[in-house]
Amino acid sequence: MCGIVGYIGNKNCVPILINGLKRLEYRGYDSAGIGILQDQKSLVIKNKGKVTLLEERIQNLNLISNVGIAHTRWATHGIPNELNAHPHSNHDGTLFIIHNGIIENFLVLKKNLLNQGYRFNSETDSEVLVHLIDSFIKEGNDLTKSVQLALNEVAGTYGLAVIYSGEPDKIVAARKGSPLVVGLGENENFIASDVSAILSHTKQVVYLEDGEVAVITKNSFNAKTIYNKEIEKEVHEITLTLEEIDKGGYPHFMLKEIMEQPETVRNSLRGRIVLDEGTSKLGGLIDVIDRLINAKRIIITACGTSWHAGLVGEYMIEQFCRIPTEVEYASEFRYRNPIVNKEDAILFISQSGETADTLAALQEAKMKGALVLGICNVVGSSIARETNSGVYTHAGPEIGVASTKAFTSQLVVLALISLLIARRKNMSLVDGKALAEEILAIPDKIESILKLNDKIEQIAEEFKNAKNFLYLGRGYNFPVALEGALKLKEISYIHAEGYPAAEMKHGPIALIDENMPAIFIAPKDSTYEKIISNIQEVKARGGRIIAIANEDDNEIDKLVDFSIKIPQTIRMLMPILTVIPLQLLAYHIAVKKGLNVDQPRNLAKSVTVE
Ligand code: F6R
Fold first, then answer.
1. Cα separation, 302 vs 309, whole angstroms
2. Location of each CATH 3.40.50.10490 domain in the chain
3. 377 lines ligand 1 (CB under 6 A)
4. Which of 82, 100, 402, 488 suits a disulfide with 159, CB 3.0-4.6 Å?
5. What is the pLDDT of residue 243?
6. Fold (CATH) for 452-602
């Protein structure tokens, strides 16, 4: 996720900014940059890759300045490269900006600015901000007013900081939907997207709220709204340690990533639903949409958790788009000379975008002439670059080895793709709108499930010594059973199997006794009655049962030992909700067993070997 740090004061800002960026590295990034004012002139240096590379590049330049801003970028619009890295400057290099977030209406703003004669150097949405602010300065406004006027035209999210050589004594910063904090020191002040970047300098901070603009000089700080209303801000004293802060106050990245899913799902959806038309808007598919809609067959290829997302995708696409869909392990696809036609569309799902098996399967499919599309989290990753088109999940960097937030974002993107195709085929406007509304309601529902964390932890305490687990689900929730079992296996080292619940009687039922806990994913859908029969079968054999059920289901409590109740949604979206308690259960069991949940044994975050 992008990082921001800024300094104004009596000291040389360069080492302060570089150290601040290093403190933000744990969040993941793909490029870094710094912008300072030196002798009233601005200087911007940026590169793809690590902060240490930036540091090496500026080492011999003898840069000394009392005011500057710096950024680590996690690409959303435009691949990671020097031009797309921040800061972005205006034409004469007098104004520069760093920005976190997504400007949803950047295409409209860009068109207006192009008409006014502005030229763009990057593919980013962020660059529109610098030219927009510049256009207001050219009209005679000061920097603060120009930032306010620009932000009144912007739809989307931002945490930003701006410096202007015409007013070298200040940094102007603003926030909406992307965190920003001001650090207060003695004859120096700071700005950062995350307190960890400035904590070694000050513990006195002011948190900006949405729609607020801060003006920071070396001796003063004041805040206004983007409509120029003065506001009083409270100063907070930071008590957390640096290590606690890196993980957002959570003990592990995995828990942090589970807990941030309402936000990551919102990010996956941002600007992509067109409610009036009951459809979705996916810029990365514009050039191929006709070929996709007319595909005779869709094949989804991936590994691990991403493969589970693919299985849910198969159900979605076949139900709504009526296109025959198959899901295949990338490792199998690449070696078995699959039948691939030019009329096939092949979707490659990968969080990292670097998984060797998925990449090799992609090359094979490309060679055979199919339409190849990516669903990746890491912008500019190999799979994202090698596919003709695709959709980014925008879940932000996933650091915990066990994939959590990437999975739910993959499901959201698959739902958006299904909606887009279905509306272009035979879904009505009314049905499209209903589906779009259900998708938009998902983040709030995830929030309510996360409130069950304490209860799930208690259930984990009950089951932490189990040696085996069965996960059972039907229809859309069968892949969730697989995913729940995988989460438990990889971080707790407990043997776990996922099955379609009806398959139990064809073999696995032989395993059931009082030592074999079974987790049933049993929301109220068309398979509910059948799954209740499966629960009875396990109960009759003395198995202990945990059920993931709907909030209004009181009957199920008579049959099971523990229930975790979640809100209702339509069948297709249910996996995005049912997986959350399973992620938390696996997490708590592993923690109670004293295991390293963020880096489980034998596993790597990105599997770049066969
Ligand atoms: C499980 C997990 C792995 C990955 C798999 C594919 O928690 O993280 O199973 O899902 O290695 O990785 P990506 O999605 O990066 O291709």
1. 9
2. 253-447, 452-602
3. no
4. 100
5. 65
6. Rossmann fold (3.40.50)
For residue 98, the SS3 value is strand
The rounded Å distance from CA 407 to ligand 1 centre is 9
**Of 341 and 397, the one with more pLDDT:** 341
| Cβ pair 253, 401 in contact under 8 A | no
- To the question of domain 2-241 being in CATH 3.60.20.10, the answer is yes
pLDDT at 608 over 70: no
Is CATH 3.40.50.10490 the right assignment for the domain spanning 253-447?
yes
Q: What local confidence, expressed as pLDDT, does residue 244 receive?
A: 65
pTM of this structure: 0.79
Task: State mean pLDDT over 152-180.
Answer: 94
- C-alpha–C-alpha distance, residues 34 and 418, integer Å: 41
Pairing of strands 158-164, 171-176: antiparallel
SS3 content of the chain, % helix, strand, coil (to 5): 40, 25, 35
* Cα–Cα dist 171/191, whole Å: 9
User: Edge-to-edge, what's the strand order for the sheet holding 41-48?
Assistant: 41-48, 31-38, 67-73, 3-9, 188-192, 181-184, 204-207, 236-237
488 and 496 in contact (C-beta within 8 Å)? yes
Residue range(s) occupied by CATH 3.60.20.10 in the chain:
2-241
pLDDT value for 606 = 66
Residue pLDDT, tens place only, 457-470? 999 999 999 999 99
Tens digit of pLDDT for each residue in 379-398? 777 899 889 799 999 998 88
Q: Is the CB of 331 under 6 A from ligand 1?
A: no
pLDDT tens digits, one per residue of 84-122 = 999 999 999 999 999 998 898 999 999 999 999 999 999
Distances, alpha carbon 178 to alpha carbons 80, 159, 248, 261, 575, in Å: 20, 5, 14, 15, 27
Nearest CA owner, ligand 1 atom 11: 304
410 lines ligand 1 (CB under 6 A): no
589/60 Cα distance (integer angstroms)? 51
Question: Does the pLDDT value for residue 157 go beyond 90?
Answer: no
Atom of ligand 1 nearest to the CA of 403: 7
Q: Which atom of ligand 1 is nearest to the CA of 303?
A: 6
In the prediction, which pLDDT does 10 show? 96
Read off φ and ψ for residue 182, nearest 5 degrees. Answer: -105, 130
> What tens digit of pLDDT does each residue of 224-257 get?
999 999 999 999 988 767 766 678 889 999 999 9
Distance in angstroms (rounded) separating the CA atoms of residues 391 and 309: 14
Q: How far is the CA of 328 from the centre of ligand 1 (A)?
A: 14
User: Which residue's C-alpha comes closest to atom 16 of ligand 1?
Assistant: 350
